[in-house]
From TrEMBL:
Protein name: Oxidoreductase family, NAD-binding Rossmann fold
TM helices/strands, residue ranges: none
Pfam families documented for this protein: GFO_IDH_MocA, GFO_IDH_MocA_C
Organismal lineage: Bacteria, Bacillati, Bacillota, Clostridia, Peptostreptococcales
Similarity field: Belongs to the Gfo/Idh/MocA family.
Entry's Gene Ontology molecular function annotations: nucleotide binding
Domain Gfo/Idh/MocA-like oxidoreductase C-terminal: residue ranges: 141-398
Domain of life per record: Bacteria
Residue stretches making up the Gfo/Idh/MocA-like oxidoreductase N-terminal domain: 4-126
């Protein structure tokens, strides 16, 4: 198998910690050879972690891609609004591309990337819809395809964002403001819509969505609170206190790395004093919804509800699949699938085997498939830019439905966008 050389755009949580570490664990398959990152501390940390040559360290993706091709492939994991241009240029230069979701926060650019994927069909162009690579959802896919419970009729799917995770990413963090980044349904849940499309195996036909920013606003701010948590007297009683979340409770490392590239106790304390992650959740510039429900009908008449909410204890996904002859319940975080066939009193419990990587084992499986596809140049990929357009269209349509209070015909929505692109 050919050893693949990979450049990375963006040394954030996904570029630094989700995909690239696979090559540290499997050096015989490939190596990281370049980084483009505008923040000095992150760039230096990445350089040292992956032992990069100084000539391949860049301050921006523009600088990296201004050079002749220096790798076989590129992982693009920078901000949502900066995905289109480096992906387009990388394809033109002959790179294989792994693009973090969402493909773009501009639907015109999403569809354009889908068209570029068709144009550069000899290059691997995958989107990081990692749920398709998790043992959990692969097991559900097998159950659907086996027909052992009859025909799939309906799905209930919940994204339980978790109160502290929502505060971290969507109130204080990078995805708090849809004008600057993406709507919540796109930024957080385009891969949930993708997994529904994958399980149902039919295009979406209609979607109707409802949701609001109800609690995490300035209207909930009390005079006894302070703009920054470190100065607030309500630290002990407020569950959203940055002091609690970052200094007292045991949170995942990637969240702490977002607060400071070197998340020591001292550095975290300093970052919370005046930085964005130390702000009161009721005194931020967030505008994305904190709860949203979506109702979907697919072309094969399977129906689904998809509910996402900030107001949950766990950061988890739960799902229920209802068949003509049985039902299946699942908890993604607990890695439990419960199968019940009608007419029996028994339950079959499955605990899919996990590998040690993020997203329930999906991160490593995805990058493994990406590298394997470049090396062997055969086989059908589970996720591609062409396949991913559909879930993105659904996400934008959901947001439009939420705002307009209309039921959206997804085919009409897509065709209207394509028609406008062709007029440009």
């Amino acid at each position: 198998m050919k050893k693949v050389k990979i450049a990375v755009v963006g040394a954030g949580s996904r570029g630094m910690y989700a995909y690239a570490p696979y090559l540290l664990d499997n050096p015989e398959l490939g190596e990281i050879v370049a980084i483009a990152e505008p923040i000095d501390e992150k760039r230096d940390l990445f350089k040292n972690k992956y032992n990069l040559d100084s000539k391949n360290i860049f301050n921006s993706w523009q600088d990296l891609l201004a050079n002749d091709k220096i790798a076989d492939a590129i992982i693009i994991a920078n901000n949502d609004d900066s995905h289109f241009e480096p992906a387009k240029l990388a394809l033109e230069k002959g790179y294989h591309v792994l693009l973090e979701k969402p493909m773009s926060n501009d639907l015109n650019k999403v569809i354009s990337l889908g068209e570029l994927a068709k144009q550069y069909n000899n290059q691997v162009f995958m989107v990081c819809h990692v749920l398709r690579y998790t043992p959990f959802f692969n097991e559900l896919k097998k159950i659907v395809e086996s027909k052992e419970l009859g025909e799939l009729i309906s799905i209930q799917h919940n994204e339980n964002i978790g109160y502290w995770h929502f505060a971290h990413s969507y109130v204080r963090g990078n995805w708090r403001n849809s004008i600057e980044t993406s709507p919540l349904i796109l930024a957080k849940s385009c891969h949930d819509l993708d997994i529904l499309l994958w399980l149902v195996d039919s295009p979406g036909e209609y979607i109707s969505s409802f949701g609001n920013l109800s609690h995490l606003t300035s209207a909930s701010f009390k005079t006894s609170m302070k703009d920054h948590c470190v100065k607030c007297d309500l630290q002990e009683t407020c569950p959203y206190s940055a002091v609690k979340i970052y200094l007292e409770e045991d949170k995942i490392v990637r969240s702490l790395n977002a607060v400071h590239p070197h998340p020591t106790k001292y550095n975290l304390k300093k970052a919370l004093q005046n930085g964005p992650y130390g702000r009161c959740v009721y005194k931020c510039d967030n505008n994305v919804v904190d709860h949203m429900v979506n109702i979907i009908e697919f072309k094969n008449k399977v129906t689904a509800t998809f509910n996402l909410s900030a107001f949950t204890q766990e950061c988890s996904r739960t799902i229920k699949l209802m068949f003509s002859h049985g039902e299946v319940g699942g908890n993604f975080t607990q890695n439990i699938i419960d199968i019940h066939k009608f007419g029996t009193n028994t339950h079959t419990i499955i605990n899919p085997k996990l590998n040690q990587s993020g997203h329930g084992g999906g991160d490593y499986s995805l990058i493994k498939d990406f590298i394997s596809s470049i090396s062997s140049n055969d086989g059908e990929l589970k996720t591609t830019a062409i396949k991913s357009v559909q879930s993105h269209v659904m996400a934008f349509a959901a947001e439009y439905s939420r705002i307009s209070h209309k039921v959206i015909n997804l085919s009409d929505f897509y065709n209207d966008i394509k028609e406008n692109i062709n007029k440009l």
